[in-house]
Automatic annotation (TrEMBL):
Naturally occurring in which organism (per UniProt): marine metagenome
InterPro entries the record matches: DUF5916
Entry protein name: DUF5916 domain-containing protein
Residue stretches making up the DUF5916 domain: 106-216
Length: 293
């Protein structure tokens, strides 16, 4: 999971507005049983984490264990009953780590796709073929900023949506599961959902990019996405272009979101959203400002 605003906010499908359960970082785990119980060991590559490049590290961390037979939850750093483990401000501190090297945070994922069909036409056997190539790149620009690039994107490996019957006049909000859009996705949210069951305003929803209303893929020509934090500045920008398909013209999407942390738990910021039809005059633009004090 990836958490923003300590996980506070109203529910959005299986997520809250500020908990992204579909982010899937690289890590590994092994368990074993012993005469005294069991042991679990979790290995998380440093490139999966985001931390400042300083000699001596101090990280916030917490761990939770559910003991079913006792109906009990145990935390490494105590948390009062009204909060969950997502309350990162109540986490413990891991100190004493020195000379931690994150390594080069670069992941390149190319793909090659080929297909062929044979059809019999009378006495003739007609063979046709097709192929495609594409590339995804993820690069850590700094310890806090992450750059994603995509070219001729292939989302064939993404798991399908759960089937739902919609009897209302409102569209369903299926969760985003495409890797390009997942990391730091909460940084594009506007407003504060921290008051009761309030939720952030959904001015930008990534499922509107590269997917038709029925969930069919729309080819993406290419795009870039920069997200992260530098000092007190929170930055999120995205630019992506789709091809003409399903009788609709190609489109360009741009989103720019900036906010700055002020005081201890406050921030102020704004967002610009632009959607334009390629080669046409249709557009949709939104500008908003927000503050949480």
């Amino acid at each position: 999971q990836q958490i923003t605003e300590e996980g506070e906010g109203g529910w959005r499908g299986s997520n809250t507005a500020n908990i992204n359960v579909n982010w899937d970082g690289v890590w590994d785990v092994k368990t074993t049983q012993t005469s005294n119980g069991w042991v679990a060991e979790i290995a998380i590559p440093m490139v999966t984490l985001r931390f400042p490049k300083v000699d001596q590290q101090s990280w916030g961390a917490n761990f939770m264990r559910n003991i079913r037979r006792k109906n009990e939850q145990v935390f490494w750093a105590p948390i009062t009953k009204e909060y969950q483990i997502t309350r990162v401000s109540l986490a413990g501190t891991m100190a004493g780590m020195r000379s931690v090297n994150q390594g080069m945070d670069l992941r390149v994922t190319p793909y090659v796709l080929a297909s062929g069909t044979q059809q019999r036409s009378g006495e003739r056997l007609v063979t046709t073929g097709a192929g495609d190539i594409g590339l995804d790149v993820k690069y850590g620009v700094t310890s806090g900023l992450n750059l994603d690039l995509t070219l001729n994107t292939d989302f064939a490996q993404v798991e399908v949506d759960e089937q739902q019957v919609n009897l209302t006049r409102f569209p369903l909000f299926f969760p985003e599961k495409r890797d390009f859009f997942l990391e730091n996705s909460g940084m594009f949210d506007v407003g504060s959902g921290s008051s009761g069951w309030g939720r952030s305003a959904t001015l930008f929803f990534t499922r509107r990019i590269g997917l038709s209303e029925s969930g069919q893929p729309i080819p993406i020509i290419g795009g870039a996405r920069l997200t992260g934090k530098t000092g007190r500045n929170n930055i999120a920008a995205l630019n992506i272009t789709t091809q003409e398909n399903f009788g609709r013209a190609g489109e360009n999407f741009f989103v720019g979101r900036y906010s700055r942390d002020i005081f201890s738990r406050s921030k102020i910021g704004g967002i610009v959203i632009n959607k334009e039809t390629l080669g046409g005059s249709d557009y949709n633009r939104t500008v908003a400002a927000d503050a949480a004090l």
